[in-house]
Write a structure and sequence with these properties.
The complex is a heterodimer of chains A (664) and B (450). With 664 residues, chain A is of the alpha/beta class. Chain A has three domains: 257 residues, 3-Layer(aba) Sandwich (Rossmann fold); 73 residues, no CATH class; 225 residues, Rossmann fold. Helices cover 33% and strands 23% of the residues of chain A. Chain A has 23 helices and 24 strands. An eight-stranded mixed sheet of chain A has the order 6-7-8-3-9-10-12-11, with helices on both faces. An eight-stranded mixed sheet of chain A has the order 18-19-20-15-21-22-24-23, with helices on both faces. In chain A, α4 crosses α5 and α4 packs parallel to α7. Chain B is mostly helical and 450 residues long. Chain B contains 17 helices and five strands. In chain B, α1 crosses α8, α14 runs parallel beside α15 and α14 packs antiparallel against α16. Classes of the chains: A alpha/beta (664), B mainly alpha (450). The interface between A and B is medium-sized, with 37 and 22 residues.
Chain lengths: 664, 450
């Protein structure tokens, strides 16, 4: 294999001198995928932008050398650099919705690249456009080429982005979190597409991601980044077998999955140090449980451990075996959570045939022309002290359901009873609370923590006088693991994980019995996600809370939930105990969903490719909603929505014609 | 009592505004995150220099707001009688400018009137010539010395001003480290020093038709401009804030009604609407002369009414802006969290939404200020602005426009109004720009992340 890209000692600094990328070196061979792995704010994207020389304002000039084949990118004049960008080196961005121009058709945008880099114009360009779109798996490319980005779904847009990147026949493709904004099923499609195109064209790829699963699926070699430096570099096999750097080890340990469901996750305490704050010593030292005096005094140098494998840690310079150490870390986690929920579990919340329909108004008089059936007849039971997970792709109505329970969306029909009684408006706020997805959007930036926590108490008129409230707030902060003095601070002074703790404390302030968690960790890094999941588990244990856990992250479900409900287009298609649903999924949709999750140990199910997109809930297919995309669809599926039938083990039931009700 | 303080309507409103600003400052000072954008503002040289210029205008405007009436010497039956003329502290400070009126036009630095008159010379012959001014350059025995005298006065005043400026800069240099700010401070004080020295002996900007000093008129106009620019916002703000936020938050019929009102209002030509309202008000004022003790009070009420009318016709833009922002905010998760607790709508509006649209309000107000100052000039020119007896940039321009066609041209009134307004509006605009940059969250993202 020939070396395609060679980066050596790349440094990118902010104007105030803080290095965002600090001495990064790596190389990529043709046909190889090199993954940069790391948490947010560790400089992955800045490395990519430095390579493209597309750094944003406020960033000082950078040093170091970058060679693409034999071209020195660092010293290329801007004029020639423009030919390299999009030509020999192309980039795909994270948010496909933001990287396509909304007022140009897809074809025009690809033709622009073609005209610039291949000199194709007019009909020839159009033919090539259609060819490219077909190559990235867009059905009916000849028609799609004249469509605008808003007419396409997220996955489709990302495919168009890839087609655009491929238009210049690049030697190197930089993919910056290409699947983060997509659903699991779309993610699997896009990852597969990237693998296939790489095999065909033999280009090198720099894959930037925070997701170990994505790395396991697509990467050949991996560089783990932390606070602007590469701390470990290895092949995929080596890294997944024996991670050397303590940070990498902790990243693996922090991943939730079924095997760990009885024990707390090994969360990494603290968060990534702010840029430029660590001048001397190892940047990870403050969060590393194996740090010793030397770590804070001397910056560890890059040391080659084996051929092509290196690590930036004092442990390996001083000749200590990595594997043994790792065992010790594992042994450290002894305290177990109670695996089984309390046996005397009566039903806390019972939902019967809940419907949430939003009217579609049309015409001059705003007449109702139809309904978006976001939630269409969902029945659900949450026992006391249990966690029920609601799983599904975005747009399937899971968040709408959660908000409807809280009264944030109007309920069209159906019954909700709480603790045996019909749910009344008055009790709603005190019995159920919600933890929202984005801790940056869910706290009012103009209110102090104490005011945020007190708001619910004031609104519901509980919690006694102001003295009692303040002591209550103190104990809440203590419960979620925040210092008491954080009471008088504003949300912007906290990190993402701490903000989510505040949001949890706010929900707990009115002592609810049920917490609705709407993807509470999807905006957080893996290490922080582990902290929050641990917190939720210990709160459940201590307070006997029930959770309705809305998520698309199946690993979290396996770790946390007692029961799982799989939702598709407003209806629950499969439900059952977590173990049963995850190990033995019955519904073809659940099977496809599970197979799409990238697994770090390579034990994933055989990939079931889902065709097409989620249909519109305004116009759901007749019969089984999943039938048009189902690989096992039968004639009957197109006519009748299947009933819920028991499947296999106890409490496991499924809505599918494949499992007809056994007459007995 | 030798004088009686007079608080006109506009004065009261200005004091109210000052009170509001002071309490806002105290509120912000205690909160670090609210101070942050102001700190950013303090780091911008453009903002600080324009603040310096604006504060000079503000000081003049404020001095001109402290009104009083002087007691007359003759007492009628034991009671003190006060003069019907309302003066301000500023008038008192620049008394020579106010009282030294010539007969009619005279050019800047002129020693003679601009119009010929029949005079009797020493020999008793009647000659038609340009008479010497009564005050302008009256101290000069030899007319040919005038330019030398002007130079000397510029130098004297300039040097004194320069030294004073340096002293001020030195005193401030510990708090303000930006060189451009200190340099402009020195320049400004030098300029003021030179003008003061000149103005004691000459009509620096000439005189107008009835012989009033144009420099005095220009300085008096500042208050009118500032009042129009700031008081109007007092009217605009509650309307725009409440209606905009309510429309955005409640949606439904509330939104429909509010949108309908402001769409209709903004589709009526605003000058027409203002003209109609001003004429109606004029009739009301004219039919009730007994309401007013002095002519100043009458002119002042008309000014306040003009602010009211301008405010009532110009809230739509800000309202629309706030409605849009609220539409965005109401979908934020912290609003939903509050709704989940059953927090009342009014509380959500006041605790969650209003604090989060404050930066928009501030930016809009500062940017509207200059537009309003210019609007006053246009309206007074059209004849529907302030009372003709009120000194303002608009009345100055209106008075000067007829003389533009005169040969030789009388240009100084217009030029003075133009220069003063330009400086005021330019400083306000630069300040507004800096405020927008400091408060716009999109422009300060990198800083907040780091």
């Amino acid at each position: 294999m020939t070396r395609l890209l060679k980066v050596e000692g790349l440094v990118t600094r902010l104007r105030d001198g803080a290095a965002i990328v600090d001495g990064v070196s790596f190389d990529i061979a043709a046909g190889e995928t090199f993954a940069l792995l790391g948490e947010s704010g560790c400089g992955k994207s800045m490395t990519a932008l430095s390579l493209m020389r597309l750094l944003p304002d406020g960033i000082e000039d950078h040093s170091g050398s970058m060679y693409l084949a034999d071209t020195p990118l660092h010293s290329l004049p801007e004029r020639e650099m423009r030919d390299v960008r999009g030509g020999r080196m192309a980039m795909i961005f994270q948010e496909p919705g933001l990287s396509l121009n909304p007022v140009m058709t897809v074809g025009e945008q690809i033709a622009e690249v073609l005209a610039l880099h291949t000199g194709l114009y007019g009909d020839a360009a159009l033919v090539r456009c259609i060819e490219l779109l077909t190559q990235v798996g867009i059905p009916d490319a000849a028609r799609r080429v004249t469509e605008y980005p808003f007419q396409m779904s997220g996955g489709m847009k990302q495919r168009v982005m890839i087609a655009m990147a491929l238009a210049g026949t690049p030697k190197l493709l930089i993919a910056d979190e290409p699947t983060t904004a997509l659903d699991v099923t779309m993610q699997a499609q896009v990852l597969q597409l990237l693998r296939e195109t790489q095999q065909q064209s033999g280009m090198g790829m720099l894959l930037i991601t925070h997701d170990l699963g994505v790395v396991a699926e697509n990467a050949h070699r991996v560089g783990v980044m932390y606070a602007g430096q590469i701390v470990e570099q290895a092949t995929r096999g080596q890294l997944f077998e024996t991670p050397l750097h303590p940070y990498t080890q902790k990243l693996f340990a922090a991943l939730p999955d079924a095997r760990r469901s009885g024990q707390p996750l090994a969360a990494i305490p603290g968060s990534v140090p702010p840029l430029g704050s660590v001048v001397q010593g190892c940047r990870f030292a403050s969060r590393c449980d194996r740090a010793w005096g030397l770590c804070s005094e001397q910056t560890p140098a890059w040391s080659e451990v084996a051929d092509g494998r290196g690590v930036r840690c004092h442990l390996y310079v001083h000749g200590i075996e990595g594997g043994e150490r790792r065992k010790k870390v594992r042994d450290k986690r002894q305290r177990l959570f109670e695996v089984h929920p309390p046996a005397h579990s009566e039903n806390l919340l019972r939902i019967d045939a809940l419907q949430v329909h939003f009217p579609i108004r049309k015409g001059l008089l705003q007449r109702t022309a139809g309904y978006v059936k976001a939630v269409d007849g969902v029945s659900l039971v949450i026992p006391r002290g249990h966690t029920v997970a609601l799983v599904g792709e975005s747009g399937c109505g899971k968040t709408t359901l959660g908000k409807a329970l809280l009264g944030l969306n109007p309920i069209t029909a159906g019954m909700v009873s709480f603790d045996g009684e019909p749910l009344s408006e008055v009790r709603r706020g005190a019995e159920m609370q919600m933890v929202f997805q984005d801790p940056y959007a869910s706290l009012n930036p103009k209110m102090r923590v104490a005011e945020i926590l007190e708001e619910g108490l004031t609104a519901l008129g509980i919690g006694g006088d102001s003295q009692e409230r303040q002591t209550h707030i103190d104990s809440l902060l203590d419960q979620v693991g925040l210092a008491k003095d954080s009471k008088w601070r504003y949300p912007h002074e906290f990190s993402g994980g701490q903000r989510q703790r505040i949001a949890i404390a706010r929900a707990l302030a009115v002592s609810p019995q049920l917490l609705i968690c709407d993807e509470p960790t999807s905006a957080l890094d893996v290490s922080v996600q582990a902290q929050i999941l641990n917190l939720l588990k210990s709160l459940q244990e201590g307070l006997g809370l029930s959770y309705l856990f809305i998520t698309h992250n199946l690993a979290v479900v396996e770790y946390l939930a007692h029961e799982v409900c799989v939702m598709y287009l407003g209806r629950i298609v499969e439900r059952g105990p977590t173990e049963a649903v995850m190990r033995n999924p019955r519904h073809p949709y659940t099977q496809a969903l599970l197979s799409a999750v990238p697994r770090i140990d390579g034990t994933g199910l055989e990939y079931v490719r889902l065709e097409g997109e989620l249909p519109s809930p305004a116009n759901p297919p007749l019969g089984c909603h999943f039938a048009p995309r189902c690989p096992q669809a039968m004639p009957v599926c197109a006519n009748k929505f299947p009933d819920m039938t028991p499947a296999g083990s106890a409490n496991h039931s499924v809505c599918c014609h494949l499992y007809p009700l056994q007459p007995n | 009592m030798i004088f009686m303080p007079v608080i006109l309507w506009s004065d009261a409103l200005v004091f109210l505004l000052i009170g509001a600003v002071i309490s806002a400052v105290l509120h912000v000072r205690k909160r670090e995150h609210l101070m942050l954008p102001w700190r950013r503002l303090a780091h911008s040289s453009v903002a600080m220099v324009s603040t310096l210029v604006l504060s000079l205008f503000l000081v003049i405007g404020l001095l001109d707001t402290l009104h009083y009436r002087v007691a007359l010497s003759q007492n009628s039956s034991g009671e003190t009688v006060y003069s019907s003329e309302v003066l301000s502290v500023f008038d008192k400070l620049v008394t020579p400018l106010r009282t030294r009126t010539e007969k009619t036009y005279s050019a800047p630095f002129a020693l003679h009137l601009y119009a010929k008159e029949s005079m009797t010379d020493a020999q008793g012959n009647v000659v038609r010539d340009y008479p010497r001014l009564q005050y302008g350059g009256a101290h000069l025995a030899d007319e040919s010395q005038s330019s030398l005298d002007v130079m000397k006065r510029i130098a004297n005043g300039g040097v004194v001003g320069f030294l004073l400026g340096c002293l001020l800069a030195w005193l401030l240099s510990r708090r303000v480290t930006r060189a451009p700010v200190l340099v402009s401070l020195v320049m400004l004080v030098t300029l003021v020093g030179a003008s003061v020295e000149l103005a004691t002996a000459y009509h620096v900007l000439g005189t107008d038709k009835v012989g009033q000093d144009v420099l005095y008129l220009s300085l008096k106009s500042i208050r009118t401009g500032l009042i129009i620019g700031t008081l109007t916002t007092l009217v605009t703000l509650p309307l725009a804030l409440f209606l905009g936020v309510a429309a955005g938050y409640f949606r439904g019929w509330v939104d429909d009604v509010i949108q309908y009102v402001y769409t209709v209002l903004s589709s009526i030509p605003s000058v027409l609407l203002i003209a109609a309202a001003v004429l109606m008000m004029q009739v009301t004022i004219d039919t009730h002369p007994d309401w007013f003790e002095t002519s100043a009070a009458r002119a002042d009420l008309r000014l306040v009414a003009l602010c009211l009318i301008l405010g009532l016709t110009s809230w739509t833009g800000l309202c629309r802006l706030l409605r849009g922002e609220t539409l965005k905010l109401r979908e934020m998760e912290y609003i939903q969290a509050a709704q989940a607790f059953g927090v009342s709508s009014m509380r959500i509006l006041s605790r969650h939404i209003m604090p989060n649209v404050m930066h928009i309000i501030l930016i809009a107000l500062v940017m509207d200020f200059s537009a309003l100052v210019l609007a006053e000039a246009v309206l007074s020119y059209v004849g529907v602005g302030v009372d003709p007896s009120m000194i303002s940039f608009g009345t100055m321009i209106n008075g000067a426009r007829l003389e533009m066609g005169r040969e030789p041209m009388v240009w100084w009134s217009l030029a003075a109004a133009f220069v003063f307004m330009l400086v005021l509006v330019l400083a306000a605009n630069l300040f507004a720009d800096a405020v927008r940059d400091a408060f716009d969250p999109r422009l300060n993202r990198t800083e907040s992340k780091a």
